[in-house]
Amino acid sequence: MNPHGDDPSLAGTVAPLPPHVAVLVVGAGFGGLGMAIKLAEKGVHDFLVVERADEVGGTWRDNTYPGAACDVPSQLYSFSFALNPGWSRSFSPQAEIQDYLREVAQESGVLGRFRFGVSFDQGAWDEDSQRWRVRTSAGECTADVLVSAAGALSEPKMPDIDGIGSFQGAVFHSARWNHAYDLSGKRVAVIGTGASSVQIVPEIAGQVERLDVYQRTAPWVMPRRDRPYTRAELFAFRHLPGVQRLYRTAIFWARETMVPAFTINPKLAAPAKKASLANIRRGISDPDLRERVTPHFEIGCKRILISNDWYPALDRENVELVTEPIAKVTPSGVVTEDGTEREVDVLVNATGFHTTDLPIAHRISGRGGLTLARQWEREGMSAHKGAMTRGFPNLFLIVGPNTGLGHSSMVFMIESQIAYVLDALRQMRARDIASLEPTRGAQDRWTKDIQRRMERTVWHTGGCSSWYLDAQGRNVTLWPRTTFRFRALTARFDVHEHDVTAHHASRPDADRVEQPT
Ligand code: NAP
């Protein structure tokens, strides 16, 4: 199937880039697609979206591993402006989400502004022209505004294990599943017991000869309250949109009530803890195995997982949960610290993503040539309102630092951020602004407030390490308040929190207005 419909420019060769665009968007997941649709809706047609893959979808295009599904309710997992009456069940499988994104893209009429198969190689801020100079695999262009919607869970992280490069069998990461490889009758090792692993393991356990699951930290796993929608519900979603809105609103607010358990008092999560412990008792009969899968940190400190078949899968005859730490990988298998070698044909790394060391940050350099990665190394990953970083004028981040969620849908946060960017663009046009960036004071206040709030969250006090934290132990990924608070705080782009350079400036610095900090 050609995912780009009948548009020939998108099916094969890549149309050349124009020399200049008003807005260049990187990435065509929920963030980039939503941004494109809303730009067009606001009458901004001078934009381009570059995407290294060959279709829209982002994480939902890339994560096709067996069992891939969303652990956020379906009703929250669509744009508010494009509800999907077609979700078949309360938690959607990956393929349905990918189909939904394809369909939204097709119907939006914006695909002509996308360049698929084009990687964003470098973006450098040019102070003289007050523009971004962008290098891509399809050539160069300039842009007034750069929007990075490259995603926080897009770059697979391979485990740093001695000898892993010497393994002679098949090796794949959960986010780069090799569907051409048949696992039937194979001996398989899965490294990791996070959100991806708990979906993969039950799905492949019945197919493989033997499955070794390497667990470093036992996760909290709650029951998955998933069910197919009834015919009556599906009928109502399709013909009575108010019903679907009502479902969505009810689920949204129910999810928001979970926030205090993460951010104020973990004891509020006692019912979730109880349900998870019952899930273990239901799924596993062996007391020793029950003990080894019982987490030793506060629930919520890491992402809470949901599954009904994870524990039964670990209890199977052909599955072994290995809790002894991995010492090394040999050409034929995995050796644990007690000296045991378990030979396998396949090594599946369900080991997560680069989240606090985003690869795209190395490709973006701001004022003075400093890369975003270097800036964040020095000062910690931060962005004012989760969107803009000082020293990087006219750069907007979708799913920027501290915008992630553990309890609800990222689509809500993404839509908040898109509206924020649109308001910034509107005000830049209205005030004849060539460039802007947050004042040091505004960004510092924002970041300090977030980090102060973090101190009492379960992510800091819960006694675990997680991908939410950077090397210094700061949570630079999650939003520590309710999502509606984030929406309220980003509802309006406040120019007064930014240093601006006017368009008419002959020498940019001459007209630079430093805001009091
Ligand atoms: P993850 O949650 O970061 O889990 C990685 C797992 O690999 C952890 O169990 C980790 O152990 C283990 N690990 C990493 N390096 C290791 C090493 N060197 N040796 C042994 N074990 C190692 O990654 P993920 O499962 O891919 O999920 C990442 C995020 O993607 C999730 O938190 C979620 O936000 C998202 N996701 C969502 C869904 C969904 O349903 N919506 C599904 C999948 C993923 P430790 O715990 O000890 O670090």
From TrEMBL:
The keyword Oxidoreductase applies. SUPFAM superfamilies: FAD/NAD(P)-binding domain. It is an enzyme of class 1 (oxidoreductase). Keywords: Monooxygenase, Oxidoreductase. It comes from the Bacteria. The keyword Cell cycle does not apply. Pfam families: Pyr_redox_3. Its EC number is 1.14.13.22. One of its GO terms (molecular function) is cyclohexanone monooxygenase activity. PANTHER family: FAD_NAD(P)-BINDING DOMAIN-CONTAINING PROTEIN-RELATED, L-ORNITHINE N(5)-MONOOXYGENASE-RELATED. This is Cyclohexanone monooxygenase. It comes from uncultured Nocardioidaceae bacterium.
